[in-house]
Structures are given as C-alpha cells and as structure tokens.
Amino acid sequence: KKYVYMFKEGHADMKDVLGGKGANLAEMTRAGLPVPPGFTIATDACREFYRAGETVTTEIQQQIDQALAELEEKVGKKLGDPADPLLVSVRSGAKFSMPGMMDTILNLGLNDATVQGLAELSGNDRFAYDCYRRFIQMFSDVVLGVDHYHFENILDQVKETRGVKLDTDLQAEDWKEVVSRYKELVRKETRAEFPQDPKVQLDKAVHAVFKSWNNQRAQVYRRINKIPDDLGTAVNIQIMVFGNLGDDSGTGVAFTRNPSTGENELYGEFLINAQGEDVVAGIRTPQPISALKDVMPGIYQQFKEIAHRLESRYKDMQDIEFTVERGKLYMLQTRNGKRTAQAAVKVAVDMVKEGLISKEEALLRVDPNILDQLLFRRIDPAAQLEVVAKGLPASPGAASGIVVFDADTADKLGHEGKKVILVRPETTPEDIHGMVAAQGIVTSRGGMTSHAAVVARGMGKPCICGCEALRIDLRAKQVTVEDKVIKEGDWISIDGGTGRVLLGEVPLIDPVLSAEFKQLLDWADEIRKIDVRANADNPEDAAKAREFGAQGIGLCRTEHMFMALDRVPIVQEMILAETEEERRIALDKLLPMQQGDFEGILSAMEGLPVTIRLLDPPLHEFLPNFEELLVELTKLRMSPDSDPVLIREKEALLRKVRALQEFNPMLGHRGCRLGMTFPEIYEMQVVAIFRAAANLKQKGIDVHPEVMIPLVGHVNELRIMRELVVEKANEVMEETGQAFEYTIGTMIEIPRAALTAGEIATEADFFSFGTNDLTQTTFGFSRDDAEGKFLHQYVQHKVLPDNPFIVLDQSGVGKLIQMAEQLGRSVKPGLKLGICGEHGGEKSSIEFCYKNGLNYVSCSPFRVPIARLAAAQATL
Ligand code: PEP
Ligand code: MG
C-alpha cells in the first residue's frame, strides 16, 4: 500500500489522503509554481500509526526512507551532511485545516556539525545559530515536552545581559551561547543529550506530529468544528527555505481578498528577515503586504500574479504563505482562506458577479451557521463612549464583559454564566477553551493573522489584536493604558469592527443587512421551497422579523405578554381568584391589553399569517417563589409592628403558591389543560384576538390570525377547545358586525399527538411541531435541567451526536414528525404543517423539515436570514 507521496505525485482533490496542506502543495507543484520540494506521509499512515499502538510500522518507515532518499537525490543534499546539510520542515496537515492545533518543526537536520556547514554555506554565522536555537526550542517543545517558556527565559536573560531589546540585535556569539544554554536545559529537563542524529530527529518528529492529532487542543477544536476524530493527519516534509538570511529575505502570509470584509484586495502581512512562525505567533508586529511593493517590487508583482492564478484555479479566496530567500520567492502553502461571515457573503456574491462561480455555488459557499455573526449586535452609535485604546479590527461584532487575563478563569466564569472579555498579550492554541467561553478577545501583540485573530474570526467572536497601548500585567491581573488602570473583574466593551476598546458596559444595537447579504438571500428565496416565519411576541420583534424576510409569524407566545411589569399584579389577581366570577373580573382588565398586543402584531404583519398560541405555561410561573415568600412572611411575623392585614394577605398568597406547586410542572397543569379547566382564560384571549382582527379589518388592514392550541395529546382536547374558539369568533363577528377569516390548529408536542395525528387532524386546520417539548417528552429529558446535569457530558462523550434541543433528533423525534405528517395528511391532504421549536432555525433540522413536506419553519427573528439560506441549501 502507498503511504508516502512526493509532491509531484499528488493533486488538489487528494485531501482525504494528503491532508489539505499536502494536497495543495502537490497542486502548486503540478502547476509549476515555485514550491520547495518535499513529500507527504498520508493520513492513512497516521491511522495505521494508531492501529499499531502508536508506532510507525516497518512498511511505512521504509516508504519514508525511500522518499527521503529521493528528495536528497533531487536537491543534491543529504540529511546530516556536515558540508552541505539537507534541512527540512515537518508539518502536520489534516483534511480540514486546524490552524495551530497540531505541531510543526522547522530547521530539522541541524546539529553541532551541520550548523557549521550551514554557517559556512550561508556565510552567516549569526543566521545559522539562530536557526539552530529555533530548532532546539521547537523540537524540545514538541517532541521532548520541554515547555517553551523555559527557552524564552534563557533568551530574555541573554538579551538582558547584552543590554538589547530585540532578537535581531543579538550577534552570532550570543546565539552560540543561547544554543549551548538550550542544550544544557534539555540535558537537565530530559536527562539526555539533545538528539544529534538527524535521522533520529526526523523519526521522532514524525512520531510527534502523528501524536499531536490527539492532543487536547486538537480534540477541542475538532469537537467545536465537528471534525471526525478518526481522520488522522498527514505529515509534510519539505526542504527549508530561509526568510531569515538577511534583508533580501523575508516571510509572509496573505489572503487574496480581505478575510474580514471580503474586499477584493491583496491582504496580509510580511516580515523582513524572519522565519514563518514569527508572523503567525505575533511576536514581532509585521508590516502590511502593500508595503512589500516598496521593499521588493519584483517579488510583490510575482506574488500578486501567483495569488491571482491560485484564486482562479481554486475559484475561492486563498490564504497563502510565502517566503523570500535571497531575493527568490517560494510558495509554502495555499488553502481556502478562513473568513468572517461578512467576507464569506461578499466573496461569494462578488465571485458570481465576476463569473467565477454560479449562484447555486455561492449559496452553498456560505455556512448558514456562521451568519449570526452578521446578525450580531453593534455598539449603539448614540451611546456615550469612553475609548481607552485602539487596536487592529481583527474580527467584527461588539461585546461587553468583565476583564479576565487567563483562559482558565475565562472558562470558569463563562460556565457560571458571566460575560467575560479575555485580555492577553497574545493567545496560543492553549487558550482555546478561554476563547470559547469569552464574549470577545483582546490582545496587545500580533497582527490580523495572529492566532487570536484567526481563531476569533472562525468562532465569530469580536476580537481586537495588536492593541499595543495596553500594558498588561498578568501577575497583578491588571492592565494599564496611559494613566488608567483596569483590573480583573472591571467591565470593558470592545468593537471588533473598528478595533476600539471601551471602558464599561455599552448599549448594543441590532445589525442591518449589507447589500451583498440581501442579494444572497434574494437568490436563496428564488430557489427555496419552504416558507420561513418567525417566532415573535411583540410588534417590534415582528417588524424586525419582517425586515429580515419572515413570511409570517409561526409562534406568538402570549404568556410573554402576561409578564409585563404592569400586568403581573392583574395576572396574579386572576390566578388567585377563588371563584370564576372573581377571575372574570381580572380577565376583563386584561382583555383590552391583550387586544392592543394583538392589534400591534397583526398590523406589523399585515397581509401575512400570524399564529397566536393560547396560554401555555403552568400558572405558578406568574407567582412569587415559594421559598422567598416564606422568608418574607417569617420576617413579617417576627417583627412586632407588622400590619396583620398584610400578614393575612401574604398567608393567602403562600397557600395559593403552595397549592399550585407541582412535582413535574412541565408535565403538569399547563397548555390546553389550563384552557380545559379555566376556559374563561382562553375565552378572554380568543375574544382579544378576534376583536383585534375585526377592528383592524374595519380599518382596511389585511389580517390572518391563526389560533393555536398548545400541548394537545388527545383529539377531544382539541375538539372542545375548537368549539370554544368558534363560538367566540361568532360572538365577536356578531358584536362588531365585521367578518374576518381565521384558522384553528394545534401544536404537536406530545408523542401521543403525533401517534394519533390522524384523529387530531380532523379538528385541526394546521399542525405546528413544538419540537422543544416534543424533544423533552420523547427523550424524557427535562428541557430546563438536562443540559447542565448530563446532556453536556452525553454530547462530549458522543452518547448523543448532538444536543437534541439544538439539532433535531431525526431518527427519534423526527420519526414522530414523519408519522404525524403522514397520518395527518392522509385524513386532510391540504393540512398545513410547520415547526416552531428552536430547531426551526437550525440548518440540518430545516433540511429535514423541507424533505418531509413541511410548509414552513419558524425561528427567532435574528435567525430568519439563516433559515432562508439553509432552506435554499436544502433544495440544492
Ligand atoms: C415547543 O415546545 O417547541 C414550543 C415552540 O413551545 P415552547 O417552547 O413555548 O414550549
Ligand atoms: Mg411547547
């Protein structure tokens, strides 16, 4: 079996085998671009490595040795040859790019003898020893497990004794000293000499790269990005070219378009006299790529042409790494660039206009799940802002939170539900859990392609990089900006779109859609075949939803209207009423308020259907908490001057609260069960809906109310509730002299309703799948408790593929939906079907709904654009 491929043997479509990096190096080699030669050890070899108990099998080893011999032959150098040593880089590269998650080693092949050879060949001692110390540091960190900060400490000490600030100020003798102290450190830490045999170095490096597939940060990254664990990584071995040979050398990273905005312009950074990791690690702050034009005009022109060629070849924005060695350009990597949602949309739409890709292709290019970045909030322009510093706008969006200085604290506070902003000098892949937990990230060093910037963009989190005005003191846990001191726990806000760091918490506002985004969504609307509605409970949300393209309201939860501060006392009065008569008095007060609510929503949705659900939650949700009330009452009783009337009132309230307490409230007295036992509540709501409809109709406003009965499990419940609704509709028509249209339907959110959907359909004009409750009742998982108690672990350990409250469980809950569809439509072929649980805004669930004949999905207003795109993708 073939496990090792020379670059010239592969091509771009071999990502499965060669990994992304290997496949693209092969493709560039094939296209005749200046790529330093090398070979790729295939991902199969990594899988085989794990199968064989973490060893490289003889068969694979032989193929590596053979490829190495071929490489030596080709370039006319030999690994370990003191006169003319071959030096290589060893880089990981999986099928899906996992930036910075796995390991890389540069300058491999150096030892005490070859470093001399390198010095002589380059005529540059300083350079050779700089390479050697870099190699010792990287190799020791990755292969021998000696933490890199030990090395940093030594370097700092040497710089201090020499009285210099920058690495570039150190001379050959200084680097020699660094090298010998590094070797001493390795001896002390590993109780062995630093390996001098380049072949041993190579074998150990390959082993370490395979092992890095399973390091913790790679596992976390795969989990977040849903990359399968069993793919394995390829290993790329490539001859070194040196960007640190002097001022006619350099290294850089560039995107063919701006990865933040999508603007069609070469975008990136480079450093003169540096090696690749200097750019990415954010240790020195690089220059913008446009400045390369002045420093190396010929190289700039050549690079620009190659960039353009690569983009046309891949028909996508490229992220390119390059090195210049003594005035000659080399391409080290190209890949489809990671980008913000804003850039993804703009690049896709622009490429259609440029004739590079089709509309369908453009629609498939944008992952709906990242679009919420565009729908992110930004800072209210009217707000008073106290800008304390400005850095690079590395990832757009705005956020407020308390400052924390390390990833572990961010992670801990994040899990406690606190909003945090992670502030670091720079981030490394070790900080990833803190970045996940944070609302946003700020670094004081590093550029737009630094780790923090790349990772934050991928996560869709606001991020500011290279904010050099911040003087971060990690030990004192504070940051100083000019004369201001910000301590851990203080509030700050960041605006990743402009790079501004602000003091305190600032008001955020809703986003507006760009022209390209609208264009893409219009294309989506042309081809999608399932409607998108929104879940909205007030006129503002309804208007927002409509602006985002909602085709109606799929769920208006009326209980939210009961929770308004001024209404709670009346709602409580209704609940506490001892008799129906008393209850009706309270309901009469609520009626005009509800009618106003419905008028607002129905007119905001003029011409479109509005599904209004009658009261659903258990009534105790509107009452004070039992324990708190008990404490309050005890205090009143103990205090000698309490008002006895007040005490009696509180006692009555406490009794009522206790009476309403249930062991399983979500399975208790809620939904249509309330309507069955207190029909007067539903009557009031229905009258409010119909009076609103009649009233608007009289004003010439086109309204389409759809009354929805929640939590039905038996057809008789729906039959009785339907009679109530019809009776009230007739009464209102009579009383107002105004006819109006309406429909009556039910939620399918109890398994029994799905199982008996044929019977239920006889009483329903529509079904709306309440997949939040349907998931809860099908799994028997409490939707309020499961997440924190065990579901998190279930997902982490892959007991379940996803959280079923987010991603519809197609094989279980989905089967009930399919059954309800078939049974319902067999009785009533035109039965309208929709979904209004959270899943209505989730990509894979939307696809399921489309494939199973639902007429619409309904989701929160901010997810409407996402759903429009996902619905289009479902048809492609
Ligand atoms: C549902 O159960 O899916 C639903 C939409 O209703 P709620 O979330 O209000 O229970
Ligand atoms: Mg429900």
From TrEMBL:
Substrate binds at R557, R613, E749, G770, T771, N772, D773. Its EC number is 2.7.9.1. Keywords: ATP-binding, Kinase, Magnesium, Metal-binding, Nucleotide-binding, Pyruvate, Transferase. It holds the Pfam family PEP-utilizers. Residues 16-53, 57-293, 301-354 form the Pyruvate phosphate dikinase AMP/ATP-binding domain. It is an enzyme of class 2 (transferase). Coiled coil: none annotated. Residues 418-499 form the PEP-utilising enzyme mobile domain. PROSITE patterns: PEP_ENZYMES_2, PEP_ENZYMES_PHOS_SITE. InterPro entries: ATP_grasp_subdomain_1, PEP-util_enz_mobile_dom, PEP_util_AS, PEP_util_C, PEP_util_CS, Phosphohistidine_dom_sf, PPDK_AMP/ATP-bd, Pyruvate_phosphate_dikinase. Mg(2+) binds at E749, D773. NCBIfam families: PRK05878.1, pyru_phos_dikin. Belongs to the PEP-utilizing enzyme family. This is Pyruvate, phosphate dikinase. It comes from Effusibacillus lacus.
